[in-house]
Every structure is written in C-alpha cells, then in structure tokens.
Design brief:
Blueprint: H1 2-8, H2 15-37, H3 40-56, H4 58-61, H5 66-78
C-alpha cells in the first residue's frame, strides 16, 4: 500500500519524509480508528483513507510540528 501513497504524493522529492511520517504514525491512526470502529478491517480502511489524503496534500501537511501532526492525524481518523 505504501507504493500507492508514494505514487500519488504531491511532491515526489518528499518520499523519504512521507515514509518516515507513515512509519511513525500508522499505528496511532490504526488504533484510533479501531477504538471507534471496533473492527480491524474498517480500521484498516480508515488508515488507508487517512494516508491517501495525507499523500495528496503532503506539501501542506508535513510542515506541522510532530504534536500538531499527530493531533491532525487522530482527528482525520475520527471523522
């Protein structure tokens, strides 16, 4: 799935940064979604949707500090 995110990344020069963000926050997004949905398949769908959105808008999003980015990703996974 990571290759799909990298393919739609809005700035291809940011691949390494996106991979870092993905690896750091994928568990947080998944667990947040799982707590709300109670279903692992639905939580995985939320994870995919959140990171697809992040990839498409990464040039705007990656500038956030780590606390703001974590809060933003949790907020996305709740909606």
């Amino acid at each position: 799935m990571l290759s799909l995110y990298l393919a739609v990344l809005d700035d291809q020069s940011k691949e390494e940064q996106f991979i870092d963000v993905y690896n750091i926050y994928k568990r947080l997004v998944y667990h947040t979604a799982y707590k709300i949905m109670g279903d692992s398949y639905l939580a995985e769908d939320v994870l995919q949707e959140v990171f697809l959105y992040v990839a498409k808008n990464f040039s705007k999003i990656h500038r956030e500090n780590c606390h703001e980015l974590a809060a933003y990703l949790v907020s996305c996974s709740r909606s």
